[in-house]
Amino acid sequence: MSHTGRPAEPDKRTLRREFLTVRNRLTADDVQSSATALAGRALELPELAHADTVAAYVSVGSEPGTVALLDALRARGVRVLLPALLPDNDLDWGAYAGQDSLERVQHGGKMALFEPGGERLGPEAVTGADVVLLPGLAVDARGMRLGRGGGSYDRVLARLERAGARPPLVVLLYDTEVVERVPEEPHDRPVHAVVTPSGVRRFG
Which residues contact 28 (CB under 8 A, 6 or more apart)? Predict the structure, then answer.
């Protein structure tokens, strides 16, 4: 219980562990079928239909799959920007040139990431995106996103704000990860929409 007598909210670290535990139980088939459905739902978004440049990411492990979506966007002629993790956890960006162009990069003790090969465009490149697709572990009824805790996307969102850029922010999740409430901190920013395999939900 908290000092107010109400049940204390679980902290972000506990919640992250819980959501990751559920994800880690998914089979490869679960992940694959969800990825196909997720791509279909996301491609129906009007924001993506009108986008010239989309900042996205390559899913790893049991994350909701993004590669089918990246390929479909690229086939539409959309310029897709993908992140490359910097030593300070900030993100540089490069253009997606197909699955063969991805490089598997091991960052210390963290999980290996798939990053764009080729030219690095600099951390500011994200400010030119028409839509930003964000990873996460959950989103709540207000649009507050629970990330993995590395802070990389907090920097991206702060950079967009400083640049006066206001692209729609869309988080890609499984259906069970849309919840009533996640803890928030003063720097957290709500997203505009969540896409799950079963549909799209928008936030005010």
Answer: none
